[in-house]
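Example A, followed by Example B.
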Amino acid sequence: MGGLSIWHWLIVLIVVLLIFGTKKLANIGSDLGKAVKGFKDGMNGVEDKPAAGTEPQQQNKSNAITQDKPRE
């Protein structure tokens, strides 16, 4: 009487599907899988490496400040 039978779990699954929908659950599952993979890679010491075909983006920022009037 204290445990949950398979029928209880099926009812819970149906209610969750009705509330969230299949697309939302698929996205949650995908995000959870990526999080677990990232955690495992972090525990193994694997660093984030860019893909072989991608180049780092260069930022073109100007440090020069132009002023119309010089300060006195």
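Example B, a separate protein, is given below in the same form.
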Amino acid sequence: MAKEHEVYFNARFMADKHTHYEASAYIDRILPCTITIPGYMTTDFQKKYGESMRNYLVHIRLGFIENQHHVNPDIFKSTTHLRGTLRSLDEIIKVEKL
């Protein structure tokens, strides 16, 4: 069961994973988490805001699950590491230009 959290991430530091992007952030400035951003989301973001997502600090509300419950657990992260996927622009609360 996914638990919702609000997090900020600096999109300038998203890692390109060929089919998607990954951003690292902290929940409540304590718990590390990974945010998966599908390729179509960066295109939708650019259409809406007129610029690349990489030019923004993005504040989102997402559901996060533990790595061990993910479809493809990351073997390099702990089983309790939290992961979430940005699936809609509606999950974006606010953007700030860098």
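On Example B: The beta strands are 3-10, 15-16, 20-27, 31-38, 56-66, 82-85, 92-97.
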